[in-house]
Design goal:
Layout: H1 6-12, E1 21-24, H2 52-62, E2 69-72, H3 77-95, E3 110-132, E4 135-154, E5 160-184, E6 187-198, H4 201-222, H5 231-247
Helix pairs in contact: 1-4, 2-4
Length: about 270
């Protein structure tokens, strides 16, 4: 069972659409090219998961409780075609030319494309520490940022219907303490204790994809590409998203010229 995220819970409770969307995912790659960081030797292991298409497919299938998307299998299409061929050959061998054919594969009207386009490490670092009479402690933290891009492309026209870019922050925290005491005149006793907590990168990628799907749905609703079955419930969710965007919107910079400074002579 994958650990639930706040974005995932909201996405799974979305009101159903007026009609389910037929979509397909061919690939959702890691486009960052980042390897795991190591100070001692070169790492060849990737810093991020290479299973982005599997995560995106799982998120789409569960969106709105399974009411939003019908996902056509395209990531591993060759095994599917091979299995269908085996079934058809077996039918032909048993029933001859009268053997019924398999129904055609379901096609998608929208292809979802994109990928993980950014992984910025050590975006923010810092810490604090103190030591007094042999006892002390320190705390350090680091912030990494993952950026995900997702777009919906029309199969009939090739036009990009909607495109979104989302970010997810990964936090790493290290807390440690130390203490020492003279056990004898020439013997020093020292003890260290600490722990490190890192947010899972795969879980951050999943939440970034969930946020991208969530935003893509609302972009489509705003552009009239699809709509909610219940307009009232859909409007409530739209207001919620707008309020969240306003809450994180940057404060506008005032560029007006300052008022002139006036000086006064004070007589003693």
């Amino acid at each position: 069972m994958v650990q639930p995220t706040k974005t995932g819970i909201v996405l799974d409770t979305l009101p159903p659409p007026k009609r389910k969307l037929d979509v397909s995912v061919y690939n959702f790659p890691d486009l960052t090219g980042q390897n795991k960081s190591n100070d001692n030797f070169a790492e060849f292991s990737r810093a991020l998961t290479q299973g982005g298409s599997s995560i995106l497919t799982d998120v789409l299938v569960k969106a709105g409780g399974g009411a939003w998307f019908d996902v056509a299998e395209r990531a591993d299409l060759q095994p599917l075609l091979q299995e269908r061929q085996i079934i058809q050959n077996t039918r032909n061998a048993l029933e001859g030319k009268k053997a019924p054919s398999l129904p055609p594969l379901r096609f998608a009207g929208i292809i979802l494309e994109g990928g993980v386009i950014g992984y910025d490490t050590n975006e923010t670092t810092g810490g604090i520490g103190a030591n007094y009479l042999g006892l002390g402690g320190n705390a350090q933290y680091r912030q990494d940022i993952i950026t995900v891009a997702l777009r919906a492309v029309s199969v009939q026209t090739g036009r990009v219907l909607a495109s979104v870019t989302t970010t997810k922050i990964i936090y790493s925290v290290n807390v440690s303490g130390t203490g020492f005491q003279f056990a004898a005149i020439d013997h020093l006793l020292q003890a260290d204790l600490g722990f490190t907590k890192n947010s899972p990168a795969t879980l951050a990628v999943r939440e970034g994809i969930q946020l991208a799907v969530y935003s893509l749905i609302f972009e489509g609703v705003k552009n009239g590409l699809w709509e909610f079955r219940d307009p009232v419930a859909g409007a409530a969710f739209m207001r919620l998203l707008d309020e969240q965007k306003k809450a994180i919107a940057p404060i506008p910079v005032v560029t007006a010229e300052p008022p002139p400074v006036r000086t006064a002579l004070v007589s003693k």
